[in-house]
Amino acid sequence: AAPQRAEWTGQIGFIISAIGSAVGLGNIWRFPGVAYENGGGAFLIPYIVALLTAGIPILFLDYAIGHRFRGSAPLALRRVAGRLGESLGWFQVMICVFIAIYYTAVLAWAGSYFVFSFDLRWGDDAGGFFQGEFLRVPDDGTLFSMDFVPGVLIALVLMWVVTIVLLGQGVVKGVQRANMIAMPLLVIGFVVLVVRALFLPGAADGLNALFTPDFAALADPGVWVAAYSQIFFSLSVAFGIMMTYASYRKRRSNMTTPGLVVAFANSSFEILAGIGVFATLGFFAHQQGVGIADLEGLTGVGLAFVTFPAIVAEMPGGPFFGMLFFGSLTLAALTSLISILEVVFAGIIDKFGMSRKGAAYGIGGALAVVSILLFGTTTGLIALDTIDKWANEIGIVGSAVVMTVTVLWIRRAGRELSGHLSALSTFKVGRTWLLLVSVLGPIVLGYMLIVTIIDLIQNPYSGYSPGYLLVVGWGSVFAMIAGSAVLTLLPWKRDPSNFVPWPV
Ligand code: PHE
Ligand code: NA
């Protein structure tokens, strides 16, 4: 008989862990800048539309598949849609493999900067410190090197060890416990940070810059694409995470209410981060005597590791603020990384019958080696940015399109899944949900995918050479597809179809 599948100890463990996955770098460093650049306050309209028409419906789809078919992405999707489904599941696992490799690097940087905050180690040239002293990015344009950077290397090894050991402890003692500790700390730390930021001189200007609506932006399709892509990445949907976490829920579970809680918590954290980040940027602009529009580095790596350190250096009580910011970033990234790796390990455990410790130490160790070779050296920064772009905008969006088409059009599992979602839930889903996931979803996402592909082909990303982008960007996606094909062809330890879906 198949071993008993691990279960969260209760609904709270699941909800907190799912929020832990959702709340990540996307909330803190992506949402505020994206909102600002895409219509400010007016961005909330496409954002909410995207949340209601695609984010939550696809979140429910992930939940329904993972719970009803009780498996990691490859197993659950195999049970829904045969080999085609399984290969999609492995593609989602491969996306997580790539993301894990660079996400850990950011986690390591955040952890290092938490320590650097004590004495504001970056001094008064935060940008120079980050690229020069800290990462030692070669200034001659070298793309690959094997020169290790000791400081980064140590932090990276440490983060891998922590994550692997946690995941080796299993779903309850590892994943759930880590989230139950980290998430309250994150919320408290971040709320303190936001409150502090609101009292900085210039904070109000920052908030005005973020929230003043530019309604003309709504006529730009690019703004809508930005909203859908923010929601997707932010909710961690369509790449196996929510499916895997849902597979650990007890048999008789309310499916939809926790989904609404997770989505609401994630969006609230995004708005909160927008307030905190822009209040802080308002202070910076005020210090420099410039407008917010003149500032650079408002998202991503630049915001977190260049702009914020520069601001912290000018602030009374800077070390405390820096610790709050980088501490929050570390916890947010750690709880997301746990979910990413859980997708990978769960897939391997389900298919090959490997033990949890075997998967965590063996597969996790192998990923750690790759991550350390790529990001413990002087070349980490460039590859990170490129892989991130392709994994998110091609990988995840592509996976969502294929998933909705395979499950709802080819396999026609829509009614079965909507019945499953509603059986024990207080919030019932019906025809509206089905229309959203099966018709609107694939159209909007397919459109986004095509627009992105054309744009990436026509305009070399960030001005990198086409050869480099072919290898690192497109190459990553090809590697995901190839990896998924190989994994699908390998034999199952236990027959995946020997199974009865849960009648709830
Ligand atoms: N949802 C996370 C965020 O908003 C991002 C994430 C990416 C989570 C990859 C898990 C895996 O930052
Ligand atoms: Na998020």
UniProtKB/TrEMBL annotation:
<feature type="transmembrane region" description="Helical">
    <location>
        <begin position="432"/>
        <end position="454"/>
    </location>
</feature>
<dbReference type="InterPro" id="IPR037272">
    <property type="entry name" value="SNS_sf"/>
</dbReference>
<feature type="transmembrane region" description="Helical">
    <location>
        <begin position="180"/>
        <end position="203"/>
    </location>
</feature>
<dbReference type="GO" id="GO:0016020">
    <property type="term" value="C:membrane"/>
</dbReference>
<protein>
    <submittedName>
        <fullName>Sodium-dependent transporter</fullName>
    </submittedName>
</protein>
<feature type="transmembrane region" description="Helical">
    <location>
        <begin position="260"/>
        <end position="285"/>
    </location>
</feature>
<keyword id="KW-0472">Membrane</keyword>
<feature type="transmembrane region" description="Helical">
    <location>
        <begin position="390"/>
        <end position="411"/>
    </location>
</feature>
<keyword id="KW-0812">Transmembrane</keyword>
<keyword id="KW-0813">Transport</keyword>
<feature type="transmembrane region" description="Helical">
    <location>
        <begin position="223"/>
        <end position="248"/>
    </location>
</feature>
<feature type="transmembrane region" description="Helical">
    <location>
        <begin position="43"/>
        <end position="66"/>
    </location>
</feature>
<feature type="transmembrane region" description="Helical">
    <location>
        <begin position="148"/>
        <end position="168"/>
    </location>
</feature>
<feature type="transmembrane region" description="Helical">
    <location>
        <begin position="466"/>
        <end position="490"/>
    </location>
</feature>
<feature type="transmembrane region" description="Helical">
    <location>
        <begin position="324"/>
        <end position="349"/>
    </location>
</feature>
<dbReference type="Pfam" id="PF00209">
    <property type="entry name" value="SNF"/>
</dbReference>
<feature type="transmembrane region" description="Helical">
    <location>
        <begin position="12"/>
        <end position="31"/>
    </location>
</feature>
<feature type="transmembrane region" description="Helical">
    <location>
        <begin position="361"/>
        <end position="384"/>
    </location>
</feature>
<dbReference type="InterPro" id="IPR000175">
    <property type="entry name" value="Na/ntran_symport"/>
</dbReference>
<keyword id="KW-1133">Transmembrane helix</keyword>
<feature type="transmembrane region" description="Helical">
    <location>
        <begin position="87"/>
        <end position="110"/>
    </location>
</feature>
